[in-house]
Write a structure and sequence with these properties.
The protein is 50% helix and 13% strand.
Length: 209
Amino acid sequence: MKGKKGLLIAFEGIDGSGKAVQSGLLTEWLKRGGRTVIDYTYPDLRSRYGDILDEFLKGRIPMDEKTQLLTFAADIMKDQEQIGKRLARGEIIVMDRYITSTIAYQCAKGVPMFDALRLVKMLQPIAPDAVVWLDIPPALGVRRRKNRKGKRKRDLHDSNLRLLSKVRANYGKLYAMKWLGRKWARINGKKPIAEIHEEIRDLITPLMK
């Protein structure tokens, strides 16, 4: 798609907020419009880092919060060169979680946010053109995750209401700062799926001009 603008769109939110559903719907819509779209999901279960994180999330290996921060960040940073090239070619990158999740979750576990933000600044990840924060109450996320099917239907985070409340609060802080993303949108994740999708389309359409 020569001459078209590349975009990086990151979906964020606590477990059960609807990131996979909405990122998938956006990808399908963009492809129908003739755009080249590449999906990334973190943790990346196809990578060595993702293997380690999957074992941790299933409770099979211990990992302190600082090691979690570094491993989640490494899993994301490994793709940066490839992503940069794709953006330069005018492709659209849609992410189910980005490094914002790493900050929100690991800082909820005790890593000082100032230190985590300083580390990420040093890593210099590509800034998203839009961060879509699907905001829901933690109790709703827990209920949704109980019915989830698939490769990682349960993990250490998805039933911990206290942790998810802290994570949601951290997303709120990052949203207020408009951290890293060029544009942030806080969307009520309790709305019907079709209504949320339409809101996201309205957000993304002007960015493609």
